[in-house]
Amino acid sequence: MRDWWYEFPAIGRTDLRDFKKAGDEAFKSFSRAYGESLEMFFKPLLNFLVWFEKLLINSPWPVVMAIIALLVWLGSRSWQLVLGTLVSLALIGYMGMWENTMYTLALVSVATLVCIVFGIPAGILMSKSDRVQSVITPVLDFMQTVPAFVYLIPIILLLGLGKIPGLIAVCIYAIPPIVRLTNLGIRLVDKDVLEAADAFGASPRQKLWSVQMPLALPNIFAGVNQTIMMALAMVVVAALIGVRGLGMEVLKAVNNQYITLGFMNGLAIMAIAIVFDRVSQKFGKRLQKHSEVIHG
Amino acid sequence: MKKFLATAAIATLGMGFGTSAMAQEDCGEITMAEFNWASGELLANVDKFILEEGFGCSVELIIGGTAPIFASMNEKGVPQIAGEQWVNGVRTLVDEALAEGRLYAVNRGPIEGLGEGWWVPSYTLEANPEIKTVLDLIERPDLFPFAEDASLGAFVGCPAGWGCQQINISLFEAFDMEAKGWTLVDPGSAAGLDGSIAKANERNENWFGYYWSPTALIGKYNMVQVPFGVDYAGDEAWNGCITQAGCENPPQSSWVKSEVFTIVTPDFMENGGEINDYLAARVYPGAVMGSMLVYMSDEQAEGSDAAIEFLERYEDVWTQWVSPEVAARVKAAL
Q1: Residues B174-210: pLDDT tens digits?
Q2: CATH class of the structural domain A26-287
Q3: Domains in chain B, please, with CATH?
Q4: Alpha-helical runs (H) found in chain A
Q5: pLDDT tens, B306-333?
Q6: Interface with A, mutate which of B66, B199, B208 (most A CBs under 10 A)
Q7: Is the model's pTM score more than 0.80?
Q8: Measured between CA atoms, how close is A212 to chain B, in angstroms?
Q9: Of A22, B95, B214, B227, which one has the greatest count of Cβ atoms within 10 A?
């Protein structure tokens, strides 16, 4: 009587172990059966990512800096931001972190693209049906809270080391903000406005693209912004499965106690994060210029 | 070397008999390193159990890798005991510390049958019988296509923080592998390295890279260490160049014979008493360690569980390392 009161009656150790082993064996047979086809499926994405990386690294650095400055200008129309970006990039290059920064930029850009491409439709789906929302929300909870290594190891067994597992890991962590905020943004659109659209005879598609999406834009952009931040935060975790870039340098610094190296690369990650953050926020604000109240 | 160890073991056991008449004192709190690989976990947890149940200590385990733990011991004196300190990667620092008396090596061979080197799965060699040494292997990068660029061969090195990372980088350069069409892949972490070996073996793909034994992975997948085909380049070249970053023109070399020490801090050396004798006597035969590692892998056992299994299964091995009173206390606690 006393025993089970204080020690939770768990299943026996042998049963627990057999259960775990059965799960592992099942995963390994899945990997043997479908692993190669999964690798083939991701090959185009991998080729794109490698091509993009090579483009950034092999282009002359003044060209890359100029293009980035141009994009920052087009997005934000703020010369302070352009100047800040140029100074940060110059410092990054001067301290010998150019190549690693290019790797990281490539990974984060492609990851953000993938997240947006899959995240916004998922958010739109969620906003249309409460049932879909109740199914997807726990999945998002899982993706945001489960420690990365839990899904990194199965991914390595399926796809090996390198960029695609890293990209998947980054996307798993970074997609929930954009899904949740797209869902929230669309649901928050004023019911009166929707009624007015109905009154004017709008089809569901017209309602979505001409009424709901534009009005949900502040929230969606907050989602894009957060996705980018989370993707950058994950570069160090991605380094744990061999993804090159600033993350790997930080990992090296942590493992070898190279304090200055860690700080330098950390600051480089922060600089990129700030640039992305400000540009996406300013771009979002500019897209809402038509509305009377600008959120954000 | 083994005869000396045996004699030392018997001598210390004899001393143990003599001093065991002393009342057992609570030996206080001790910090001990738990190295973040399978044999390191097992060793640390067995030590912890014996120290806590047999000697009455309270042991705190500090988890870490080769370089960080050694740096911490060297600079801060914490942890006080490092049971499985692999020395090759931090050779110069270790020799310095030992020579200056900042640290002590109470056991220069806690595990028998160690080996680091470059490994391939057995089926790779069976399919390509003309490959006999590393020199033959590096002519065939086409057998090990790199996922991101099929024109290159992938050689998997060591993650950051492991002493072997720099050694692999130097040897990669010494054997001119970049020119021969290879790329040095950084697996990022121990899990990454293990995962990449597991994945290759499960899919019957070729794999080439660094690993060491005794390990469960080598045993489980029957990997084979490829002889380098060149001799060891000598201690000076190894410690002075191959293990150092930024050395120009590292020479080709086979791997140095692996050395693992049990290292303690001076304060522990003075106050540890009988525990130092235990640490000196504790030597794991290679086969025993190998089978424990396969157990840990198959049963997904953590260090603490595996330690209990070891103490139960290999009583005749560990009772040799401690006095009968300590052995009796440990057995009672099992």
Answers
A1: 999 999 999 999 998 888 899 999 999 988 999 999 9
A2: mainly alpha
A3: 2-113+259-333 (3.40.190.10), 115-242 (3.40.190.100)
A4: 2-6, 13-58, 61-76, 79-94, 98-128, 130-145, 148-159, 163-187, 191-199, 204-206, 213-233, 235-239, 246-256, 259-287
A5: 999 999 999 889 888 888 888 888 888 8
A6: B199
A7: no
A8: 41
A9: B214
